[in-house]
TrEMBL record:
NCBIfam families reported for this sequence: rumA
The entry's keywords: Methyltransferase, S-adenosyl-L-methionine, Transferase
Protein name in UniProt: 23S rRNA (Uracil(1939)-C(5))-methyltransferase RlmD
Pfam family, one: tRNA_U5-meth_tr
Species of the source: Lactobacillus gasseri
Gene3D superfamilies named in the record: 2.40.50.1070, Nucleic acid-binding proteins, Vaccinia Virus protein VP39
């Protein structure tokens, strides 16, 4: 995988031996005693590189060619621009990707040194059933430049849009739908947003497909509300295979997020239904759900296994989202109480309880740090707890609350090995870490996901 965008063409070629992979999947070596990061290079390889950026404590390099190739190197997918994000490990054999993801958490534990970390049981990464075409949601940007439209993803850390006729981690149906929508936009001359001139128009096309039913939900994210012939476009999109709904999400140029706050249905169903471990979940356009439904079943099965629930227990589902984990656990416990800060997600969770005929789960809106002590003061038994926080991990305030409330057992579902290890430094003051199980949710990328079981230490 050779990227072609060298910032400083005056730099001379240098020869580097790659020692290991960094947390973002880049090769790491040393040049004149300074660390250098080279995307696309693998451990054990001797490569020719160019320095493209210099920093006080490290260098950024560009891979020019490989002098000595690793036996773990595989061919990069044909027809795909290697500069695109989301394929950082596609040149590494899949078994080695799994080893790398186990290594990521081990390295994070060594860095932060939580109590007794050397004794932690860190299991081998569970592989995904499909290493390719697993993503059921495509979120592509569209722009009009030099007389033609382009649809795809931005290169990492830039506004340079890379056209993507093929993205091998996306399901074929979501990709095909994206390309067909682009054709309709071109045919109907629908206005495309122009970030250079700040003109209104369509800026992003989101296509999500239910793995359970095959139904497809389309959202057109627009700058501005009134886009000429947008309803005509939506009516044509509804004729595409498996499309059951089209939405418009309105945002503004000053919003740094992809999505705006206002979403309206143009045609079709309000939700699509996804199914995980026999339970059904409504998905509105903005509802968070894992991007790899097949492997989500594995991730949540592991979480439930390590909770080791009993019928007399009360389970607290923190960061409850749309209620997925709590609803999946509801058959195994007396009561589930879910806590979620986003009001819309609480409504979705309540609707999902109704959809699955779950009567022993309650979802409340608020902050976990505030509500957990209140629940305990009300006499609610906090027997078991599950947390599934964002990449930033648990706040220090929440960790302090957990150490005060002291649930006997809790499971931490993490998507960031560094913040997990950092949080374990404080949590291990009162808890023993029984097991850490990495689960590969996003093959071909360095993204990490894992399940950790913690048990209250008896002498505390």
């Amino acid at each position: 995988m050779l990227t072609k965008f060298i910032k400083n063409k005056q730099e001379k070629d240098i020869i580097i031996t790659i020692k290991r992979l960094g947390i973002n999947g880049e090769g790491i070596g040393y040049y004149k005693k300074k660390i250098i990061f080279i995307p696309g290079a693998l451990p054990g390889e001797v490569v020719v590189a160019k320095i493209i950026d210099r920093h006080p404590h490290y260098l950024e390099g560009e891979l020019v060619r490989i002098k000595e190739k690793s036996p773990d190197r595989v061919a990069f997918p044909k027809g795909v621009n290697p500069a695109v994000g989301g394929l950082e490990l596609a040149h590494l054999s899949y078994p080695k990707q799994l080893e790398f993801k186990q290594h990521l958490i081990l390295e994070s534990l060594r860095k932060y040194h939580p109590r007794d970390y050397i004794k932690y049981k860190v299991k081998k990464t569970i592989s995904a059933p499909n290493a390719w075409h697993y993503r059921n949601k495509a979120q592509y940007q569209i722009e009009f430049n030099k007389g033609k439209s382009k649809l795809g993803l931005y290169a990492p850390n830039s506004r340079r849009l890379i056209d993507l006729p093929e993205m091998p981690t996306q399901t074929k149906e979501t990709q095909k739908t994206e390309r067909e929508i682009k054709k309709l936009i071109d045919k109907l001359h629908i206005r495309i947003a122009d970030f250079r001139r700040h003109n209104d128009g369509i800026k992003t096309i989101v296509v999500r497909q239910s793995h359970a039913s095959g139904e497809i939900q389309v959202t057109l994210i627009t700058i501005g509300k009134k886009i000429r012939d947008l309803k005509l476009l939506a009516s044509q999109i509804m004729k595409l295979p498996n499309v059951v709904s089209v939405f418009q999400n309105e945002t503004q140029w000053q919003n740094p997020q992809v999505w705006g706050n206002k979403t309206i249905k143009l045609f079709g169903k309000s939700h699509i239904i996804e199914e995980i471990l026999g339970k059904k979940f409504k998905l509105s356009p903005r509802a968070f759900f894992q991007l790899n439904p097949e492997q989500t079943s594995t991730l949540y099965s592991e979480a439930l296994k390590y909770l080791d629930l009993t019928p007399d227990q009360t389970l607290i589902d923190a960061y409850a989202g749309v209620g997925t984990l709590g609803i999946l656990a509801s058959d195994q416990v007396r009561q589930v109480i879910g806590i979620e800060s986003i009001p819309e997600a609480v409504i979705d969770a309540q609707e999902n309880c109704h959809l699955n005929h779950v009567r022993n789960a309650e979802y409340i809106q608020g902050n976990v740090e505030k509500l957990l002590p209140e629940l305990k003061n009300q006499g609610v038994p906090i027997d078991a707890l599950i947390v599934d926080p964002p990449r930033t991990g648990l706040s220090k305030k929440l960790i302090k609350t957990l150490l005060e409330v002291k649930p006997e057992t809790f499971v931490y579902v993490s998507c960031n090995p560094a913040t997990l290890a950092k949080d374990l430094v404080l949590l291990s003051e009162a808890y023993d870490v029984r097991v850490i199980q990495p689960v590969d949710m996003m093959p071909q990328t360095p993204r990490w996901e894992g399940v950790t079981k913690l048990v209250l230490r008896k002498n505390k």
